[in-house]
Every structure is written in structure tokens, then in C-alpha cells.
Amino acid sequence: MRSCRDLLQSNDPEVFETLAGEENRQRLGVELIPSENYTYPEVLAVLGSVFTNKYSEGYPGRRYYGGQEFTDRVENLARERACEVFKCEHANVQPLSGSPMNQAVYLGLLEPGDTILAMDLSHGGHLTHGAPVSHMGRLFNFVRYKTDASEGAIDAGEVRALAREHKPKLVLCGYTSYPRDLDYAAFKAVADEVGAFTMCDASHYAGLVAGGVMRNPFDYGFDVVTTTSHKSLRGPRGGMVLCRKDLAARIDKSVFPGLQGGPHMNVIAGIAITMGKALAPEFRDYARQVLLNAKAFAAALMADGAQLVTGGTDNHMLVMNTSKSFGLDGKVAEELLDEVGITTNKQIVPDDPNPPLRPSGIRIGTPAATTRGMKESEMERLAGWIVDVLRHPDDAGRRVAIRREVEEMCGRFPVPGLE
Ligand SMILES: *Cc1c(COP(=O)(O)O)cnc(C)c1O
After folding, report:
1. Ligand 1 pocket, 36 CB below 6 A?
2. Is ligand 1 within 6 A of the CB of residue 174?
């Protein structure tokens, strides 16, 4: 029998060409975007499996369609394993991605117009934490805390003062661009003082929580934790809402039928696999290495004179102020690094004087490179190349030479599923 890939090649060469091109891009370059990763070969297999054919509206044991013997089993596996990984009482694994996952929590626990206290976007919060351009930003009243002007760290005093002033119904922490762990006890105390729910969106660093190298919000009594499954967790593109048992019915109703129809069962099967992997001892080693690599990367960059937001990292990511370090905005820095096969992404920094499409910095993250097996010495080489490229923006010849070195290094670290 011909493989699915061969069929695609002969029957739709136009699409096949884009797939082959993307495979090559992933093989030859270093992925340093902190929210990206290479999923497991087993997950790639199940994403392209017959689970994608099945409609499964509802939840295991309570579906609106027949033929659910195996979908029920695989969704239960995903839920049970997720609860074990994150030490929580209930898991909803149906959100189609990170954005609907957060919407489901807001809409399930609050009424439109209610106040949510969340991190300011320009200081590291996520689009779904109430950006004015998002629908949730119109539906709810978001009040935003920022980071401290001198240190770049979250200002707990400001969080408390805003909570007392605005009496939010939900206190939200978690971020998309912030290189430190969070003081969950402080958030919980503030929320208790004003009678608010506590929610942590751990999308970026949930893999490090699962691997035991960052704090778990449930250890501090949080009500809800949300996470995407495709970032540091290495799973398929999806979302999960984790919560206490007494909130389970409200969350489940909010995801379906409140917000979504049929769940993507191929993704849920992938989440089951991912949670199984996260429970294995090797995943702790992976999480530890992601962190060690980020610290080595940060140390190497700073030794070379680069300026990092908060002066280092406690997680998988660094935020580098390229304007201050090299006199280049983040867009230019991203493009120069793209040329040598090092993929990063432009990023606003706290109190950025520049607009989001031409911000003052870039984000660098280690989950994907670590998945390929790269360690501290590769991080140091990468840091050296990055500084070299950004110090000499007019030297195209230098970039050609560095690109060859990057490709040579990548050749020694195969992408899982692409050998
Ligand atoms: C990535 C991310 C999301 C959204 O995930 P999508 O799958 O892109 O919709 C939500 N919150 C945080 C903190 C994230 O990092």
C-alpha cells in the first residue's frame, strides 16, 4: 500500500510542495520562538488518523452521536492523565485551541461586563487577556497590571491596589512574554481579599510545571489553570481547562454547548499521548534541560553585552531589548536572524516606545531546540551567532557564513518525526 505522503505527492503536487518546503525549513533552521516545539512522532501519526473522521459532540458517556466506544476511551485517557500531570480534579480537553479555552472560562464563570484583572499586553500578557481588539476585550471590563519600571518584574503592590480599587470577579495571571515564575500565593491572597476567582493561563510554560521545574498554581489553591497543549508540552495544537471538581460542570457546559460544537478527536487522542509522555521520568529531564538551556543562553548573551528584560530568566524564554543592545528594532533583528536560519520573534518590551509591528525587542525560547537534543554548548554557540549578526547588520557575507554553520549544527540534531 502506498503511504499517505506518496498519495499526496502524486495527487496534489501543489500542496505537497508546500509541505516538503516546510519540512526542509524546520530541518535546516533553529526554532527559537518560545511558543513553538516539535511534537512527538506518535502525535503526528494520530493527528493524521481516522479519529479525524468522527463527530463526538458531548462528553464521554453523554454524546449526541453513536459509535463512541473508542472516542470515549481516548478522551477519558486524556482527561485522567491531564489530572495526574497537573495534580488537579478535573480536565476539559476539548477547547479547539488556546483562545477558545480562555473564552470558555470567562464566559463560564462570569457575566458580560464583569471585571477581570489581568496582565497588560505590552508588559507580557496575552491577546486573549483582554486586548482591546479582541471580542473578549469588548465583552468584559479588563483592568491591567504592569511590570515594575526598573526591574521589569510584576509589581505585586500594584496588583493588590488595582484589585482593591476595581473589585474584579476574576484575577488572572500567566503570560506570553515574561521570563520569570509567578508568586501564586500573592495572587491568591489578593483574589481572596476581594472574593474573586483565581485563574492562571500557563500556556507558555505548562511543560515546565508538568516537569516539576516551575511552580504549580494548584499547589497555591488556584481555581482554574488553562494551557495550550502545543507549546512547552510538545503536544498537538489544542487547549485544556483544568479546575476543581466544584467548577467542572460550569466549565464543561461553557466549552460545549456554550462555545463549541464537535471536539477534534484526533487532537484529543494526541493530548492523551502527550499527557502520557509528560508522566514519564524522561519528561522531567526534558523540562530541566529546557530551563538549563535558557539560563545558559541568557548568561552567554549578557556576557556579550545584550540587555535582557528582568536581567535573566527563570523559565524557557528570554526577552532581549535589541534597541538598547544593538540599536536595532525587533523587526529588523528578527529579519536578520531569519536570514541565518535562526527563527525568533519580534516582541514589545515593557513601556515600549515603539509600535507592536516595530517593537524594541525579540523573544528567544528553548523548548524546540531542547527537543532536538541541543544542550548548553549549542545555546552558547547560538548566542554568539545572534550577537555577531546583530552587531554587523550591514555584513551580508558574515550572514552567509553563519547560515552555513547553523545548517551544519542542525544536521547533527534531527527533528523528531522527520528523520
Ligand atoms: C499561545 C497562548 C494562548 C492562545 O493560544 P492559541 O492556540 O494561539 O489560540 C493563550 N494564552 C497564552 C498565555 C498563550 O501563550
Report:
1. no
2. yes
* Residue 350 CB partners (closer than 8 Å, separation 6+): 122, 123, 124, 146, 147, 149, 152, 309
pTM score, two decimals?
Answer: 0.96
CA angle 312, 316, 317 (to 5 degrees): 55
Residues 356 and 397 in one domain: yes
Q: Could you give the CA distance from residue 267 to residue 85 in angstroms, rounded to a whole number?
A: 18
Based on the domain organization, do 321 and 272 belong to the same domain?
no
Cβ–ligand 1 contact at 322 (below 6 Å): no
Kindly give the distance from the C-alpha atom of residue 402 to the centroid of ligand 1, in angstroms, as a whole number. Answer: 32
The total number of structural domains that make up the chain: 2
What is the per-residue pLDDT across 273-294, written as a single tens digit (0 to 9) for each? 999 999 999 999 999 999 999 9
In terms of residue numbers, what domain contains 319? 289-411
What's the CA-to-centroid distance between 233 and ligand 1, angstroms? 13
Distance 359 CA to ligand 1 centre (A): 20
Query: pLDDT of 179-228, one tens digit each?
Result: 999 999 999 999 999 999 999 999 999 999 999 999 999 999 999 999 99
